[in-house]
Design a protein that fits this description.
The protein has helices at residues 56-67, 91-103, 118-129, 158-171, 189-195, 212-221, 231-236, 241-244; strands spanning 8-11, 20-26, 29-34, 40-44, 48-50, 78-80, 84-88, 108-112, 133-137, 179-182, 199-200, 246-247, 255-257. By secondary structure, the chain is α/β, with parallel strands linked by helices. The strands form three sheets. Strands 8-7-9-10-11-12 form a six-stranded mixed sheet, with helices on both faces.
C-alpha cells in the first residue's frame, strides 16, 4: 500500500478540491473523511495524492476570520451567553467544535452519538443539561441515484436528524426557548426546517465545514436575548454561506448584566 491510515490526501478526479484523512483501508479501497469538511468518501489508490499543505493558508484565514469577530465591552458589564449542547456523529469534529467554543469562553458540552441514535437519546440530554441551543450534526449525503432532493429517503442521515428535531420539539416547542441547529453535508434543508430547526443545512445540498454548525451556535449564544438574530450576517460567517446553511429570524440567548 502506498498510503497508510492517518495520511492526509486529495483526489485527482475532484481536482484536489478537498483534504481527506485515510481512516480505513479494506482490500484495495481507501476510506476517507474530510479533514475540514463534514464528508466521508472512498477511493482507489491511483486517484489519491499525498497532501502537502496547499490549503493550509486558506484554512488559517478562515479560522482567523471566525475567531476575530468577537468584541464585548468588558469595562462595566458582565455577560451570560446561552448554553450549548452539541450532539455530533463524529468525535473528531465534535472535539474541534468544543475547542472552538472554548475560545469564546462559552458554556458548551458535547455528546458523540451515531446519527441513528440521537433521537432516542436527545430528550435525556436536554433534561440533563437544559441548554438554550442544541446542535444536531454529524455526517450526511444526498444520493442522486436514490431519488430527488425532495425525497428524504435519498439522504444518508437526514431522516435521523428530522426525528431528532421532532423529539427536541416535544421537549420544548418554542423556537426561542430552544434554538435547534441541525444537519450536515448535503442534508435535506427543507425537511429539517419543517421539523422545527431554527437553522439547518444545506439549502443547495452542498458540503459544509466541520465548524459551520458551531459558528452558528456561537453567534446565537453571544447575541443579546433582547435582540433579533441577524440571520444573513450569521450565515455569512460560515464557510459556504447561504448555499450551506439557512435559518429563521429569532432572538439571541445572552443576558447582559451590570455592574461587572
Amino acid at each position: 500500500m502506498k498510503y497508510k491510515i492517518g495520511d492526509l490526501v486529495t483526489r485527482k478526479s475532484y481536482n484536489h478540491d478537498m483534504v481527506f484523512k485515510i481512516i480505513n483501508i479494506i482490500d484495495d479501497v481507501y476510506y476517507l473523511k474530510g479533514e475540514y469538511i463534514r464528508l466521508c468518501a472512498d477511493s482507489f489508490e491511483d486517484d489519491l495524492v499525498l497532501y502537502k499543505g496547499e490549503k493550509e493558508e486558506e484554512e488559517r484565514e478562515f479560522n482567523k476570520k471566525i475567531v476575530d469577530d468577537l468584541h464585548l465591552e468588558r469595562d462595566e458589564y458582565f455577560y451570560l451567553p446561552g448554553k450549548i449542547l452539541h450532539i455530533d456523529g463524529d468525535e473528531e469534529y465534535l472535539n474541534k467544535c468544543l475547542d472552538y467554543y472554548k475560545k469564546f469562553n462559552l458554556w458548551a458540552t458535547g455528546s458523540k452519538l451515531k446519527e441513528s441514535e440521537i433521537a432516542s437519546n436527545i430528550r435525556s440530554l436536554l433534561e440533563k443539561y437544559h441548554p438554550n441551543i442544541v446542535v444536531i450534526t454529524g455526517h450526511d449525503a444526498f444520493y442522486k441515484r436514490k431519488g430527488n432532493t425532495d425525497d428524504i429517503e435519498s439522504y444518508k442521515n437526514s431522516k435521523y436528524f428530522v426525528e431528532s428535531i421532532r423529539e427536541a420539539r416535544k421537549y420544548e416547542d418554542s423556537h426561542e426557548k430552544l434554538i435547534i441547529i441541525a444537519g450536515a453535508c448535503q442534508s435535506d434543508y427543507d425537511e429539517l426546517i419543517r421539523a422545527g430547526a431554527n437553522f439547518a443545512s444545506s439549502p443547495k445540498r452542498v458540503n459544509i465545514h466541520a465548524l459551520d454548525p458551531a459558528i452558528i451556535a456561537k453567534s446565537i449564544s453571544l447575541t443579546e436575548i433582547t435582540n433579533d438574530i441577524d440571520v444573513k450576517s450569521i450565515i455569512e460567517k460560515t464557510k459556504y454561506g447561504k448555499d450551506g446553511i439557512g435559518g429563521i429570524k429569532t432572538k439571541g440567548t445572552m443576558y447582559v448584566g451590570f455592574p461587572r
